[in-house]
Amino acid sequence: MDRMDFTQGVVRTRVLEKRLLSRAQIDRMIDADSIEDVFRILGETEYAGEASKVKDFYNYEKVLSNELSRVYDLMREVSVEPKVIDLLTLKYDYHNLKVMIKEKELNEDFSYLYLNIGTEDFNEIKKLFLNGNLSEIKKEYQEAIEAVQKDFAKSKDPGRIDMILDRYYFKHLYQLAADTKIPLFVDYVKDMIDFINVKTTIRLKRQGRNRNIMEEAILPGGNIDKESLLLTLNDSIDEMMQKLKDYRISSSLLKGLESYEKTNRLTDFEKYMDDYLMNLNKSSKYITFGPEPIFSYIVAKETEIKNLRIIMVSKTNGISPEAIRERVRDLYV
Questions:
Q1: How far apart are the C-alpha atoms of 175 and 106, rounded to whole Å?
Q2: With left for phi above 0 and alpha for psi between -120 and 50, is residue 107 left, alpha or beta?
Q3: How far is CA 163 from CA 40, 98, 216, in A?
Q4: Cβ neighbours around 276 below 10 Å, total
Q5: What are phi and psi of 182, to 5 degrees?
Q6: Nearest to residue 166, comparing CAs of 220, 244, 228?
Q7: Among 120, 150, 212, 258, fewest CB within 10 Å belongs to which?
Q8: Is 332 helix (H, G, I), strand (E, B) or coil?
Q9: Is 320 left (phi over 0), alpha (psi -120 to 50) or beta?
């Protein structure tokens, strides 16, 4: 990638960054008395257009999904290189593959679960899949689909569909990041894989799963090698922390493990992961030429939308402002 090609895109992205929600705005929403009051505050932001269309305040998901679609459409115009956007939309392709395969194998209608964001025209992929024309589907997706179908024919276990497609997704994602030769993108993917692998290890330990299952579930491409994780399968959390204390993500990882040890819940672990990945992107604020600011703006926007979802769900369920503050993620601004 030629960094100078992104000059105009970075200029436009700096303007968009100024419209991201501030800490003060997030705090006002957290302290709001009701979901209606949250919508009033949204009316003062770039969400105003979508928020004004909603008659039922509890239909907030439509506002959030429409905003996310708008942002991705806009950033595809901003970026001269589609791969920068594909790095973040690829997960939606694989989400849709999961839904598509489960519909066919389980003979159920999951059409409400499809997402209209992705790197490909998913309607076309689904059409080719249902017509048996796998050879016309992009190679990475074709291989993933065939692997899942072969496994399901033997196992008849729907849970394995997610596990196998996750493995193909992260393999695809890592290759996409490596092809860009942008250190931030590679680090982002490798560090995310490490967090997910540790989280998977904890879940499998909790379920009493054996080494064979764990070998299948561990994703390739992280900095923490598979064998190091396998060696923690029978460890206590303290022993696990000792073995994982010297990796890139260790500062946040250990905090997440400490929290899990106290609460037996992975909620805080996931928050530490999200905050780590956000902080990794903050160096993009100081880059003038290159794709990083475009990528990081989208990460910031996705995190902002995640925070709004946390606030909306919490208001719907009567969660206290103090508890909401513990759940919201770090901001880019």
A1: 31
A2: left
A3: 41, 10, 8
A4: 21
A5: -100, 115
A6: 220
A7: 212
A8: coil
A9: beta
Q: Model confidence over 14-69: pLDDT tens digits?
A: 999 999 999 999 999 999 999 999 999 999 999 999 899 888 888 899 999 999 99
Report the sign of the C-alpha dihedral through residues 160, 162, 165, 167, in that order: negative
- What does 219-279 look like in DSSP terms, one character per residue? PSSSSS-HHHHHTTTTS-HHHHHHHTTTSTTHHHHHHHHHHHHHHS-SHHHHHHHHHHHHH
Model confidence, pTM: 0.94
Query: Quick check: 299 and 281 in contact, CB under 8 A?
Result: yes
**pLDDT confidence of residue 54:** 85
Is the Cβ–Cβ distance between 211 and 234 less than 8 Å? Answer: no
Domains, in order of start, for the chain: 1-81+291-333 (1.10.132.50), 84-181 (1.20.1690.10), 182-285 (1.20.1690)
Q: Are the CB atoms for 76 and 82 separated by under 8 Å? A: yes
Residues in the chain: 333
- In whole angstroms, give the CA distance from residue 245 to residue 254: 7
